[in-house]
Queue: 2 jobs
Job 1
Amino acid sequence: MAALKYSRQRESIKKYLASTTEHPTADMVYLHIKEEFPNISLGTVYRNLNLLSDIGEAIKITTPDGGDRFDGNVAPHNHFYCEGCRRVLDLKMDMGPLKELNASAQQTFDGLIESSSVLFFGKCQNCLKHPSENQ
Amino acid sequence: MAALKYSRQRESIKKYLASTTEHPTADMVYLHIKEEFPNISLGTVYRNLNLLSDIGEAIKITTPDGGDRFDGNVAPHNHFYCEGCRRVLDLKMDMGPLKELNASAQQTFDGLIESSSVLFFGKCQNCLKHPSENQ
DNA sequence: GTTTCTGCAAAGTTTTTGCACGTCA
DNA sequence: TGACGTGCAAAAACTTTGCAGAAAC
């Protein structure tokens, strides 16, 4: 069990994640942190993002378009992935309906499950309005 | 717009997907089809899985453990990803609660969304019972 | 001084693609 | 025959890892 040591790079990554709601990829984080630390490497960014995710200070969201997304908001919430523009959106729904849904799932699936988060797939407002502009 | 032509390999892949509920990875499909077509290549398996997914005859499910899963059941249903054993399970819940959840999400997110499917994350029955055996 | 972290580069994993040949219609 | 599909291998895309030196404590 390794003790955690401070690093300016990790602190900068945390600050960046806390400042945005766009759920950046590792590469987007890398490009941003590079402005402050021109020598930072992508490997360091990956190591820190995984570390933060492991200790619960960030969330990793796997999407179908290659490249995980990262979220500095670790308060319980769910996500929506737009299959049109490929953005990840925060859903600040209350957890009541989620519990109902969980219960419904448990009734039909032959065994208990305990769901902690949910990822919705579909189209966002903008892509519903302008189907031609996106794939 | 290319016309679709029959191929024995694709037919075999479809048959396999229809016969299983374990949501195999491309590699698992490859290994299975290889028993019937020893010379089939992984590239062909990927091409056919993507093709089937594109024309709506299969579903591709991206999970956080690397390697997409494929499902031959294209009837509307949702999935559960167990973070313990990394299995993908089918959820045969009715769509009522999902619509409620959607509505709840739409009220708090500033814009309409239209969700077609949902992926739950959590622990399955077996992993809840035996936490030590899985990560 | 010791442990942890970083930058770099190499390697690993999964998926896609170019091309020559084979199959379907 | 002509269009589409396959096998193979190379490449692409994304992520992890080994190592020597730097930073933290």
Note: The longest helix of chain B spans residues 42-54.
Job 2
Amino acid sequence: MFSGFCLYKRSSIVSRAFHVGKEFANLSTEDIVFRAVCVNLRQRKWKVLEQMTPSFTNSLVSRVVCEFRQSPKLALEFYTWVGQSRHFSHSLESSCAIIHLLVNMRKFDEALSIMGNLMLANSVSPLEFTERLLDSYEICDATPAVFDALVRACTQIGATEGAYEVIQKLKVNGLVSIHAWNNFLSHLLKLNEIVRFWKVYKEVVSCGYVENANSFNLLIYALSCQKMGVMSGDNVLPNSVTYNCIINGFCKIGRVAVAEEILNDMIKAGVDCNVRTYATLIDGYARGGSSEESLRLCDDMVERGLVPNTVVYNSIIHWFLAEGDMEGASLLLSDMIEKHVYPDQFTYSILTKGLCRNGYVTQAFKFHNQVVEKHIIEDAFSHNILINYLCKSNNLAGAKQLLSSMIVRGLIPDISTYGALIDGYCKEGNIESAVQLYENMIKRIGLLDVITYNTLINGYCISGKIAEAFALFDEMRSAGISVDKVSYNILINYLCKFGCFQQAKELTKVMILHGVVPDFITYTTLCTNFSKNCSPEEVIELHDDMVLNGVIPDRQTYKAIISPLLGKKSAEEHGFMDLSNHH
DNA sequence: ATAGGGTTAG
């Protein structure tokens, strides 16, 4: 009887297990804990989770992080929370899972800092790191960008050989992007390892990589470091003009920090830096919106015994006004006058434009008239700015009047004056007059620039004549005028407006192929139009594509369009909307 | 003598 009872009980358990199905039959303890954690994490029952921490293993935590990769915020929260538990410390395995996640979220800084820490504090070797990231690559839905981040982390902590080993290891799998190579090349330049730079550069080319703008920038910088000395057998060394050219180049592509490093190199090399060097850098920082850095350099130059001149003041005043800082600009103007730094043609046009763009139109005209009365206007700029303003505000009559007085004052209308008027006609829908003016202009000036072409292309687009617009676009090329990003931006914008989204995307590809890098305006144009007409997935894909092609997203657009899509998407998929708001 | 600042496109 007793044995019979036992037998019965046992067989009942076995048969129940069978009934529950295969699913549970092979479950390990970890699988059970894993499911329990997922259920409770989904409901954010942290207290229940707390009780489970003694059974947490590294592989379990990695699995949970991967499982929640579509809800990256929750996964990250879990990872941080579990790291604080006294029962648990993160391993390389769980760190890899969170790194993949952070890279997918584009939180590169956070990913880099975890990577750097693991290599420095936990002495994880770059190669081992690569292997573990590869192990978890598939299950974590990772992207190759994670390896760009690893190379970057290596160079950041000074592990030059490590970075190179990582690249070599990944080369076999085709997982090394041009970004990773560029980062490594740039690191070599920072170390002044010019010979090795060229060796690695050759390797990049022989691997069949297509260099992007950044690679060429590095190349130019590398050449600039040695060029002259090598070619002349050290007989000719770079002088201040050489350095200033290079500094200007880096400022104009927005890499002002690099430009300032070159200034330091210049000082180290014993080459005198002058007012032009500082004027270039000050403009570079101001252009990039770092007015504080600009002012810091002003102090630096004064400390070096250099006196800021009109160019320096003009530059800062211009960018202050562009940012809407009227007060800062007017203080600088007073300072300029007080220090007897005399305003010039540039100053007048900067102030005229600044007053207009900040809504002080009456003052702009008043100021302009004062300057004109003193007969100190020598070029067409100020007139052009005002004619432009009038055309933009549909006051074509006023624009023509100002054109007449300009001619009376002995100033010859230039390509920009015509451009503004043509633009005015186009905006008014009077494409015939626009074309007539354009033809007259060719007779008079005999040359056309890219701006005039762009204005006309834009005019054709406004009046819906897209075929004519594209014909001009082609004509431009046959006339030997290089199509610039404005030309592309205009056409991309109108393709979107006409609902040709696929074609807009194609044209962006052509643009990139022709070496014209899309900018934040291309980005904003495409994102805005796509978000109104396409699915969230398409918009996100578009964003990703552009970023991968080196476009720097416009912050406002990203915040208004992309980031809500990402948040909403992952929240909706998992029904966390309400819960996450309460947390 | 060669190097720096102002007008066009969303």
Note: The two ends of chain A are 57 Å apart (CA to CA).
